[in-house]
Amino acid sequence: MRSYNPKGGFSKDFIERVIESTDTIAIIGRYTSLKKAGKNFKGLCPFHQEKTPSFSVDPDRGLFYCFGCGKGGNIVSFIMEKEGLSFPEAIEFLAREAGIPIPRRRVISSENEALQNAVETAYDFYRRNLQSPQGKQGLEYLKSREVDEKFARNFGFGWAPFQWDSLASFIERKGLDAKPFFKVGLLIQHKERKGFYDRFRGGIIIPIRNTAERLVGFALRSIPDKSNPDEDKNRPKYINSPESAIYHKSDVLFGLDRARKHIRKMGYAILVEGYFDVLSLWAAGFENAVASCGTAFTRSHANLLARFTDTVVVFYDGDEAGLKATYRAIEPLLKQEMLVKISRPPKNLDPDNVARQWDKEKTAELIENARDWFDFSSEVARESGLFDSVEGKFRFADRIAPYIIALGDSLLGSLYTKRLAKLLDVSKDQIIGRMKKISKKSGNIRQEQNISAKPKSDELPKDARLELDLIARVLSNPMLAEFVHSADVIVLYKGAMEKINSTIMEKGECSPGLLAEYLEPRAMSYITKSILDFSEIPTRADVDTVILSIKKINIDRKLKDLQNELISAREKNDTKKVNDILEKISKLKREKIELSNST
Fold it and tell me: Measured in whole angstroms, how far is the alpha carbon of residue 274 from the centre of its chain?
């Protein structure tokens, strides 16, 4: 196990200022109704469904814990969990809430800051263009797509003129360095002469933001140039920003920055293929829609969605290409153990057409009646005649198997295995046998009893729990910090312990909130529960007991390693090494006896 550190980049003083300025009750109170109960506040847990309140918030220490589901932490880890943000993104979120200016140079490197400034400068240029006389054709296009003026203004479309060097000339006139614009793909280097020309020309500019609401790139919807139709024939329909140091397409879903709160509210996300699919659905009132940014939907995208929901409706185009893309999207979603449903528009329509041409009730009915991916796949196979022969059923089994394999040993995986066996009128063992063969062919060789690796248990190992017990005691009684630090028994969470010790030496205490940067969520939950469970302030004797237990475990670990070395040395007939190892084993056993006698 390693310390969890997403490298937020903020200074310690800034993080502390944000945490100290945050009203924990006010922020958490937006997600669940809290009522005072003694010195704490209680309410229904915002992380799981319950009827009896088991969620507790300690405003003095800024901690929360649910005695039902075990979630716990501080206000930073709460926002990370609820909003699906990284540590630095959560700090930014809370800083904005508290009205604290964000020191941008601490958020991103100086080079990345130059790239960030480039995309923001370009965006301002594009937005102004849309409202200028040269943006008339862009406004006409938006109107033809039934995008009303208010929606267009709120979303923030832009316009890229048809000229080859419109942005490049603007940059030159302003005396700006063109290199950052080139590095983010806004400018392209001339091959035969010096200088640059624009990547985006003649079309509607669509801004792309990450989950932290930071602008990272653009997409352009090309529009035919009425004054020069011949030159315009071969232009692609959409042009996308390339990847850059600030834009990684696998980490971004178009619209997620706005849609995430609606996804949480609705309980599911609508996954579509195109930018205007998302925008038209938003305009029609379906604000939980998102799309990948001009690239295939990947496992990284699925992981991103899983932060906000466990249910996704895949709503791709109604044609054959849309069906193939639908099947490709299923597996990465299932690998996140998400509930996957499929909604398919009529063959000649896409979600954009549906949202604009149908009324809201009819569109809602199509989405709400989405079929479970297994039922949908079975229905498509049946309609195509695949079930009319033994060969067809065999092919269907091979088509479906990778999706079930993606679920591993989960409950969902077991349920779908049973469903497939029942559908094909074969035994479950026969289906499992076939899936094992498919797994081996694809290079994913599983253990005999497993189709995939077992999911990680939420239970922390004993050595991890003991170290966290020690850290919890130090946080509750800072007087113990120097003694625990000098004992040098913290190994798994060394970074967290060093942070605690340095902060206590400087300020006399350490807020548990500072550890969200160093601990994974389940470790943070464990520490929080331990602190809240203390009925009295921990003493030196409490700490001695935990340190003793850790030392014993460390000795047991060393003994196990030496036993393995001893076997190897004996196999090689290395007498000298055997004797050395036996001496070390004897010494460790004596140390363990001494530790036991000291209690």
Answer: 21
Residue 106 buriedness (CB in 10 A; 0-12 / 13-18 / 19+): middle
CB-hemisphere CA count at 13 Å for 276?
19
Residues 6+ apart with CB under 8 A from 322: 273, 316, 344, 350
DSSP one-letter code for 133: G
3-state secondary structure 471-488: HHHHHHCHHHHHHHHHHC
If asked whether residues 344 and 394 sit together in one domain, one would say no
Whether residue 593 is predicted with pLDDT greater than 60 in this model: the reply is yes
Kindly write down the DSSP assignment for every residue of 348-393, as one continuous string: T--HHHHHHHS-HHHHHHHHHTPEEHHHHHHHHHHHTTGGGSHHHH
CATH (domain of 93): 3.90.580.10
3-state class of 468 per DSSP? Answer: helix
Residue 510 and residue 582 in one domain:
yes
Task: Give the CA angle between residues 388, 390, 391 to the nearest 5°.
Answer: 100
Residue 175, phi-psi category: left (phi > 0), alpha (psi -120 to 50), beta (remainder):
left
Longest dimension (CA), the chain: 93
Are 299 and 335 in contact, with CB atoms under 8 Å apart? yes
How many structural domains is the chain composed of? 5
Whether 500 and 549 map to the same domain: the answer is yes
> How many residues are present in the chain?
599
Which position has the higher pLDDT, 392 or 448? Answer: 392
Nearest to 364 by CA among 443, 268, 446: 268
The pLDDT value recorded for residue 5 is 39
Rounded CA gap, 566 and 520, in Å?
Answer: 36
Separation of CA 285 from chain center: 25
- Other beta carbons within 10 angstroms of residue 328's beta carbon come to 14
Left, alpha or beta for 59 (phi > 0: left; psi -120 to 50: alpha)? alpha
Pair 28, 42: CB distance under 8 Å: no
Both tokens of residue 257? 């920055």
What are 378-422's pLDDT values in tens digits? 999 999 898 888 888 888 888 888 888 888 777 888 899 999 989
Residues 407 and 282 in one domain: no
Of the candidates 13, 77, 221, 24, which has an alpha carbon nearest to the alpha carbon of residue 529? 77
- For residue 253, being part of any structural domain is answered with no
Are 226 and 137 in contact by the 8 Å Cβ rule? The answer is yes
- What is the overall mean pLDDT for the chain? 86
